[in-house]
Amino acid sequence: MAHEVIVDVAGEVPAQALHQVKVKVKVKVSITSGRSDQSKLRFVINQGLIGHLCESA
How far is the CA of 12 from the CAs of 1, 4, 6, 31, 52, in angstroms? Predict the structure, then answer.
């Protein structure tokens, strides 16, 4: 099972920043819409990852 979260961020999200989030957080993330003043990021978080993060905390 996976959970989807949409996050609004100020400004544009550069491709390099998006890649860093994918690598560091290890989730699927994509830009669902982007403008110069605001972007929407879509995160898909696997339930197993949430459990793993809780166990390792």
Answer: 30, 21, 15, 10, 31
